UniProtKB/TrEMBL annotation:
Domain Bacterial bifunctional deaminase-reductase C-terminal: 3-168
InterPro entries, per the entry: DHFR-like_dom_sf, RibDG_C, Riboflavin_Biosynth_HTPR
Pfam families the UniProt entry points to: RibD_C
GO MF annotation terms: 5-amino-6-(5-phosphoribosylamino)uracil reductase activity
Protein name: Dihydrofolate reductase family protein
Domain of life according to the entry: Bacteria
GO biological process: riboflavin biosynthetic process
SUPFAM superfamilies: Dihydrofolate reductase-like
Leader sequence residues: none
């Protein structure tokens, strides 16, 4: 069975964006970002919530098109509709059985591309296997939390940690359910 890997940029205080979805303080270049982009090449499947998919519109993503051209997309939403949808995109309802099926059938581990609300739902249903944090050296104070409104506690086991000269760290944990 393949793993779901939540590979996400966060501030030191646990936000994946600031107020009004502001990500301007997060690092966009450097060795750590290059490592992240190289790591994405290992995934063939990506899952995300509607808000994360639509966030891509701010960066040139066309509605109905894949955010990651080499990946099969599963977007979890009750309301998202497209007039012209790529065959790489499947829109799913919030059904944990779909997640379990993807874990069984995916050819690679699955990239969880957020966001906080969707990740919180997956965490509460014990579906995220690995948390891979791109820890940015900043404090946002407010914004979207890494696991949304989820408040269920879990222990983590450190698997790997790498620090880069620009201050970014990539920290990998296994979630212990």
């Amino acid at each position: 069975m393949k793993k779901i890997i939540y590979y996400v940029a966060t501030s030191v205080d646990g936000f994946i964006s600031g107020p009004d979805e502001d990500i301007s303080g997060f690092m966009a270049t450097g060795d750590g970002v290059a490592r992240y982009l190289a790591d994405l090449k290992n995934f063939k499947t990506v899952i995300m919530g509607r808000k994360t998919y639509e966030f891509g519109y701010n960066y040139g993503l066309k509605p109905g098109q894949p955010a990651y051209p080499h990946m099969r997309h599963y977007i979890f939403s009750k309301t998202l509709r497209f007039e012209d949808r790529s065959p790489q995109i499947t829109i799913c309802g919030m059904d944990i059985e779909i997640i379990k099926d993807l874990k069984k059938k995916s050819k690679t581990d699955i990239y969880l591309c957020g966001g906080g609300q969707f990740a919180g739902w997956l965490l509460e249903n014990e579906m995220i296997d690995v948390l891979k944090i791109k820890l940015n050296p900043l404090i946002l104070g407010d914004g979207i939390r890494i696991f949304g409104a989820s408040s269920k506690p879990f222990q983590l086991r450190l698997m790997e940690s790498e620090m880069f000269d620009d201050g970014l760290s990539i920290i990998t944990y296994r979630i212990q359910y």
